[in-house]
Amino acid sequence: MAQTFIGVPACYPQLVELRKSKTASFKGNKYLKETTKLRYYQVVGSLHMMMLERMILSDGTGLGKTIQVIAAYTWLLDKDPTLKLFVITPKSAMLQWAEEFEKFTQGISVKAITAEYPGLTGPEARKQQYKEFKENVLIINYDPLRNEYEAVKETLGNNYMVVMDECSAFKSRKAITHFACKYIAESARRVYGLSATIIKNGLEEVWGIYDVVVPGLFGNITKFRKDYCVQELMKLRINGKERRIPKTIGYKNLPMFKQVIDPYLLIRKKEEVATELPKLISRKVVLDMLPEQKDLYRQALSGILYEERVKQEYFEITDRIRNGQTDEGIQKRFLELKEKYDQFMTTEGRKKGKLAALTYCQMISNGPQLLNVKAESSKELEFERLMKEELSTEKVILFTRFASGIPYLEIICERNHIPYTKITGSVTSNDRLKAQHLFQDTACPLIFITTAGSAAINLQAASVILLYDTPWAYGDLVQTLGRAQRIGSIRDHILVIHFINKGTIDVRVMSKVSSKKNLSDEVLGDTAVGALDFTRNDEKLVDLLYDDILEDAKGLK
Predict the structure, then answer these.
(1) Residue 465, SS3 per DSSP
(2) Which of 49, 97, 242, 556 has a CA that sits 20 to 30 A from residue 212's CA?
(3) CA–CA gap between residue 413 and residue 404 (Å, rounded)
(4) 162 burial via Cβ count (<10 Å: 0-12, 13-18, 19+)
């Protein structure tokens, strides 16, 4: 039966005192290697988990959330040798979890579920591994859990704790991942979520996460929105009919929100607990698109504006016909508009939808070659100049959302004899480790990473992070910066370079990400000091960005 966790836990006064401690000690046990040493705040984190059965550990990226979990589990296992640990994590982090157990513990057996088994592949291979599971720790990624949660739960038995790494994976309450994780968590002895960024776009995401980890904390989503969200009715057309749908436009009662989650959220800022971490110094490189880029961008904006005008006129004339205006001129115009509207709604037409339109604009800003147009890019030219001059002696992480754009940058590197490696979403786990080692431990000066490929990699050797385009979600920006700003870095500071093409989507994205940072800072404190110092919702963000780009289109002359 699922338990209801509402209100302040009885141990909260002790937790408050524990959080202040810089001398808390952690008694060793037979599972934790003598060579494993925890920093004082990591000891506090482990003790916090031992004292509280459900919570979220939201330390900054690079502060060692994994080792805190491992240390806590060794102590709990020492007290109860039958306790299983179930780790759910992004696929890219599975090997790292297994390696961390090998590095820090002894006598603990670990099984990472894969899609391969002698004579079997895919679901059948995993099914066989579930049947044979006898180890202490079971590691799986979120993808197969969506369809195999019942088999996993049966495998775990009745005495297990679950750790959900990157717990924003189940932030969407209507997603199957949310349901699967809640199904697994409801019978667990202990449930812990890990994430450096529980707020990526809005507070409703926090409700989705806590609905799994600490169910009942905020009540249902309707109560949550009433307590903390400012909403207004927005006019939307659904299947040609106008409807009014509530939309969150802001938040309220944030002090009360922080008070409610405080017992069940442990978050430490990097600059407070690990003063040796390098500071982030941001620099904005403002560029002017080249003439052919500008022409393409103008064409893109014109297309967006034309489609919006056609849709608006189609809706208006449809309403007029419903109201009895059926003269020949109106009917003729209706048929003309309907043909165009239907084209927009086809599979081909959807390529000009909001997200596609934004992506199209971003690709032009990055480089026309991403659209198979042979033309130079302002960003490519600046990248080449920097790598040959200012950054020639640096260790550089280059982030882009578009893996398809990396080959063009590789050509530039090869032309200038600049060694490089890369980690994208399509790279295998073994190749990820090879690329990480190449950048970390050799003279390789450059690594390309994408959002899909950047999770759970340690790149402390970096001295520069070059954001070729800015992540759309503030949480993704924090995760990207955390690849380099980690314990073990030899740098005093890390230079963060933002490429911005003047008057383009780059400017709009930067503005929106900054606003998300402000919300996160207000609720959780500044979790990425220096990340956006030059300037002071996923589906919702698309709408906002699209509205901004539409304004740009209306300003065309």
Answers:
(1) strand
(2) 97
(3) 16
(4) buried
pLDDT in the model for residue 533? 46
Number of domains the chain is built from: 3
d(CA 201, CA 480): 16
205 domain residue, yes or no: yes
**Cβ 198 vs Cβ 168: under 8 Å:** yes
pLDDT tens for 120-164 read 989 999 999 999 999 999 999 999 999 999 999 999 999 999 999
Based on the domain organization, do 459 and 541 belong to the same domain?
A: yes
Distinct helix (H) and strand (E) counts, the chain: 20, 17
196: CATH: 3.40.50.10810
- Based on the fold, state whether residues 260 and 283 are members of the same structural domain: no
Distance CA 472, CA 539 (A): 11
Determine, yes or no, domain membership for 273.
no
**Phi and psi at residue 417, to the nearest 5°:** 55, 45
Check whether 524 has a pLDDT greater than 60: no
Please count the other Cβ atoms lying within 10 Å of the Cβ belonging to residue 315.
16
In a domain, 368, yes or no: no
Structural domain span for residue 115: 12-268
Total number of residues shown for the chain:
557
Determine the Cα–Cα distance for residues 459 and 134; give it in Å rounded to an integer: 34
User: Could you tell me the sign of the dihedral formed by the alpha carbons of 130, 133, 138, 139, in that order?
Assistant: negative
Give me the helices (H) in 7-64, please. 12-20, 40-51
- Note whether 242 and 264 are within 8 A (CB): no
DSSP assigned state of 391: T
The residue-averaged pLDDT of 1-8 equals 56
Environment class of residue 557 by beta-carbon count within 10 Å: exposed (0-12), middle (13-18) or buried (19+)?
Answer: exposed
Residue 278 is given by DSSP the state P
